[in-house]
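Changelog note: in this version the structure field was regenerated for every chain. One regenerated record is shown below for reference.
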Amino acid sequence: MPEPWFPSPLALTPPKEKTGKAELTAPLPTFALEPSGITRVQMKLGLDKTNTSLENLQELYNGMNAGERTKESGALKIKYSPNPNITRSPSEVLKTRKGDCDEITRFAFLVASQFGIQNTVMVEMTWTNPKTKQFEGHSAIVLIPENPLDAPLVFDFTYLRNGAPLDSANLEASLKKLYAEDAKNPGFKITQFGTVAEVEASYYDKIGWQYSTAGNWEMTALAYEKAVSLVPDSFEYNRDLAFADKKLGKYEKALEQYKRTLGTTERKGNAEVLANVGELCLVLKRYGEAIDSLKTALSSSSDEQLDRKIKYDLASAYVEKGRIAKNEGKLESALNFFNEALVYEPGNHKILNAIKQLERDTK
């Protein structure tokens, strides 16, 4: 059977060749620290499970602070070091004594979990630099007090905030106030990670994003498979795994993954995901399923560019159903399908000519 008249450019694009710096091959880096690393940190910093969470967090800060704008560093002698390559694991931070704000904060959160430090949240702040248009971010740990009358405390290892109190229990509002300069930037967003699994998943999310920008879709998929295994209900991780599978040309796998994405509680009925389901069904020649998904996507979409793409794929699906019906000698059905296609691609000369020919044939 000939290719669709309106081939979907995303789904039919062959996988990119590997380019750029993100060329590390499987297996992925391990997030967990070796027991010897935990022991080393404990002995160096004097961490004790009998201490309060606040006392141990203060010891962590004293050991891991690495001034972003100064040469100051704590007992572990970790230096602030921007990283243009694959994000460092906690083991690598400990081994090299280098880390950026995200890497040091993840390292600290992982160590904190080993020593009974409770009620902590890793906060990740992201934004777009208005001058460079580049994606930027910053991270810190917040200790949530057991007494609701007490202030949450911020431990920021690179902006050097050792238990800075927030002015309210509303983390989002108080963090925006504390990080007012960063919060001025467009797209400023705060994400909270409350468990080790969530922090580890964010690590693999970062790795997946880095590999995707280099066009290394095999490693991108591996990273997001790990993230999904840690936080199965994450909309973003499931969606990004599906996209990586699609870029690899694994259309059946990508389709199933997009369907799982639709089942996450965060964003049920997402128009973009529904459009991808429809697009993949179109490529796999499941035209009826494609039409159902694309129509649902169109009814919930509020984006003009996405609407055009959905209508394009809908027209293609109806054209293919029309061609199948015509080949089977079902000319009336074929005419109906081509007329449906014209609804979504009005004025398309190929569709109009096909309709005219079918009208002559059915007389």
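Spot check on this record: The two ends are 27 Å apart (CA to CA). Residues 304-327 form the longest helix (24 residues).
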